[in-house]
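Final report, closing paragraph on structural work. Over the funding period we assembled a curated collection of sequence-structure pairs, and we close with a single example.
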Amino acid sequence: MSGSRRDCLSHRRCLAWDGLPIPCPWLAALPPEILAAWSWMSSASSPSVAMPSRVFFRGRRIKRAMEAADDAMAAARTGLSRAQEFARRRMAASQYWGAIKRRRDQIKDAYRKFDTEPCKEARKRELEQTTRLPSRQQGEWKNADGSPALPGEGVFVPKEGTPMHKALGRHQQPVTGVPFKDGQPDLSGFPPLGRNGAAPDGKAYSVEIEQNLSGDRNADAHAAWEQRAIDYPDTRNPSDGQWHHTGDGVTMQYVDRDVHRALAHQGGVSMNTSPEF
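Its predicted structure, as stored:
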């Protein structure tokens, strides 16, 4: 507190309710209820002098308002910090998958002028090594028009009799496969079956959390359940599913457990433990 303000607070004329003008400009700018409280504290020379009830209750309202303002500021700081962390993680995820995409593009460019079957097979093998993908022994890659696609692109259609085909058969008739882009699967269309399995939009429940950087799946699942209760307050918890780490570093989707387990893919756990994070 400055010297002039301290001197002013010690001056009785600044606090007295004697009808005279208050000489201190700083005190004159304060709310009346604060001045009344200070006037009582300054003039009361005996414990028998009680603070006016009007001043007391106004003081309580001011205190509650200040506490509410503090809470709002704390929430705003938390929200800003969370948003900044989400932005950082999305940037790291973009760098992670961007490096994989660049490697895939290099492989495709290297084989662009070679159209023999051995070269095509070599290109597929190299693309399969850029990220974890379903085996071609378990199915085939197709474009939307049904033509052959490169591994990690288009749609992966599993062979009949495989666990993946059986799992997808509960969602698709006939089985059309799982869409991929640049090596990443899109599982949003495979929520657990049942009354409460899907989100209100018919897709898998989706939440954003600060995914664990040590690869702790249980910690991420716990955080995802807590966030789901906040984002979807009027819905029941789904079951028979599993939390899937998407490729953006923050989004978790509650998808069909059998589909998730049967589909080989590069998970977010591997990404979160990479140098980019």
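The chain has two domains: 3-42, 100-272. The beta strands are 139-142, 154-158, 178-181, 184-185, 205-208, 241-245, 251-256. We thank the funder for supporting this effort.
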